[in-house]
Amino acid sequence: MAKKIVKTDLDFIKEIIANGGDSVKKCYQCATCSVVCNLAPNNSPFPRKEMVMAQWGMKDALLKDADIWLCHQCADCTAYCPRGAKPGDVLGALRKITIEEYAPVKFLAKLVSKPAMWPFAFLLPVVILLIDLMLNGKLQYLANPQALVDLSIEGEHSTVGKIVFAKLFPTVTGIDIFFLPAALFAVVCFWIGLSNYWKALNSERSYPVMFQGSIIGLFAGVIWEALTSARFKLCNTMKVRSTTHLLVFWSFVGLALTTATASVYEWVLRYPSPYPLYDPVKILGNISGIALIIGAIWMINTRSTLKVGTNSSFDWLLLIVVAGLGFTGMGAEIFRLMNLASIAYWTYFIHLVFVMFLFIYAPFFKIAHLAYRTLALAYSNLANRGEPDALQE
Ligand code: SF4
Ligand code: SF4
């Protein structure tokens, strides 16, 4: 029988503890967690084996373990653990470390990693937007946004006397030239991070991968699960998470569609914003914005009153960004409709800070779990890992 050498890394244990898995050492391997987890396949279930590996500091193995992404942090295991070892939190810490490990531009990952660094993380989009305003000759209007009302957009005299956000950030030179490269940066960083992770998964397979069926079919199945929150619905302790997760997820889908359709209005139909409230784009945007706010408040309330497990700063940063996007987006519109120029323009500026933050940091903080989990689930399906029984019922 071939010997397997266990590589341990004591610093990795400290890293797990520092990232929210501070209870890891309490585990005494009773396996209750693996039994109660509705998402663990029968064959080599999690999270007990991850708890063992974490206690041994088996960094290499854990950073190539797709099972940490099959966990949806429902906390059923944490609720039943007789030792208070909080396996759900330990797996959450491992997912955070995994994202940071494989993503490029470590400097950006570090900025969002610790709350003490968050002010600097937010400073970056603020500085980018101030440069944007300076290059467009609009910087002085931040001190006096009211003056923008009397201006017109070039060739659009109908905008005189109105609050139009394009007067502060012109569509092409203020928005497109800055936000499109930021979005492209996010795509490239995701591509590099996910490619690194895919190579790692395949370099030391925790289970054999057998390519079955088409790749597109496999990913389609995984994406369908995400769209319907199928695995979240199997949670018992935090059942509400499937609803809040769906609400926020579909809000983002709605807002992405709104942005895409607004681009068609702008570039193809030559129909500039602001659109009337009865316009389909406006209706979709407003419904999505309201749903995002409701989802954010609901998530924050659920997290604040958590009876099982703990919240990590990783979770809270995503909640702050989701809530910030929702409140500032809807706030900017409401203040515009109320004709409160100064507060409307400032709220819009802050909204763009959140949007830019999302673009720059998406590959490095919790929202990246969408992509990593999709990849890991596809890998598990390829490996014929076996669906949990509860998912097949
Ligand atoms: S984490 Fe808790 S339930 Fe799981 S094996 Fe360890 S002690 Fe048992
Ligand atoms: S948090 Fe939920 S999904 Fe994750 S291991 Fe525990 S019981 Fe399973």
Automatic annotation (TrEMBL):
Keyword match Transmembrane: yes
PROSITE patterns reported in the protein's UniProt record: 4FE4S_FER_1
Keywords: 4Fe-4S, Iron, Iron-sulfur, Membrane, Metal-binding, Oxidoreductase, Transmembrane, Transmembrane helix
Transmembrane segments: 116-135, 177-197, 209-227, 247-268, 283-302, 314-337, 343-364
Pfam family, one: Fer4_8
Domain named 4Fe-4S ferredoxin-type: residues: 24-84
GO CC aspect terms: plasma membrane
Source species, domain of life: Bacteria
PANTHER family cross-referenced by the UniProt entry: IRON-SULFUR-BINDING OXIDOREDUCTASE FADF-RELATED (PTHR43255:SF1), IRON-SULFUR-BINDING OXIDOREDUCTASE FADF-RELATED-RELATED (PTHR43255)
The protein's name: 4Fe-4S ferredoxin-type domain-containing protein
Species annotation: Thermodesulfobium narugense DSM 14796
Organism placement in taxonomy: Bacteria, Pseudomonadati, Thermodesulfobiota, Thermodesulfobiia, Thermodesulfobiales
